[in-house]
Design a protein that fits this description.
Rossmann fold, 364 residues, 2 domains
Amino acid sequence: MRTTTRRTAGTLLAGAALLGALAGCGADAPGTTAAAAPADGPHVAFLVPSTSLRSMAYDVPNFSVELAEKCPTCVVDVQSAPDQATQNTQAQQAIADGAKALVVVALDGAKAGDLVNAARSASVPVVAYDRLVKGAPIDYYVSFDGNAVGKLGGQAILDAVGEDTAGGAIVMLEGDPADNNAGLFAAGAHSVLDGKVDIATERYVTGWSPDEAAVQMRSALQDLGNRRLLGVYTAYDGLAAGALQALGDAGLSGVPITGQDAETAALQRILGGTQTMTIYKDLPAQARTTADLVDDVLKGRTPETTGTTDNGAGAVPTVLLQPQAVGKAEVQSKVLADGYTTVDALCAGAASAACASAGISAAG
């Protein structure tokens, strides 16, 4: 399977105009389709999971626009894949077609080594985007500080639980075990939670699936026994949605619950009082930072980095951005103020009442 969108300076601004609309939708990311490309300079392959909404809503448009400003003749070839084997094949084809750099959001960081080794053999640099590729010689890694993400979520649970923990425990729902980030988030959360609150059970959710999170939450409730459920740490807003569904089915409400990614639906839950907080990451800034790095690489310059990351094959030059905790008070002052989503998207339909109660309106 090979689906490609070629994006150049002439086609990118239209794509960027879709950003606000995409940020407010709740469906899976659309499949990539062919588009005309009048320029034909250096090609950069941007390989993303086909199930990722954020890839098409934030990563691809912002990366493409920024790279076009730096390199007007560059062509960004966007390809989406449902699994790592397909992504590996796409990467190998991109290399054969003459790509000068690969930006990769790996579906399975432990199985993406084949594409990295193929790129290394062809002297094509690889940037691991958001998710670390392990055990293979990648050139650069750009992500958010995953340990800090977990710490913020863990602290939010402790703050919400307070001093009264006797006879109670929390549940932890972590992300996909194939995603290196899931382990980073878990480690950060444990560094805050361990020794402070009992953990009834910790479960990793394959594919970051909300439906699977609901299944795991129902099972986790059995592990509580006679203990009180003090809170639910989840590593992603979609997992929070699934957990809340299971809690509702069990007749439980008002349970502190965390998330990550500041998805519009999660922000609505925060305003409505059913989700405690989310971790906000400035995804447009991550995409622009990566585009600047790629431009440096294409022009033979050494990009600025914040440190290195050991991926099992060496010290990878790394850029780590910092996440932020967002509760009800920060939805407007941070997320809306940054233009991450829009008031119209946030306050649509049933969410309008919660927005009004929080003092959020199109005029504000």
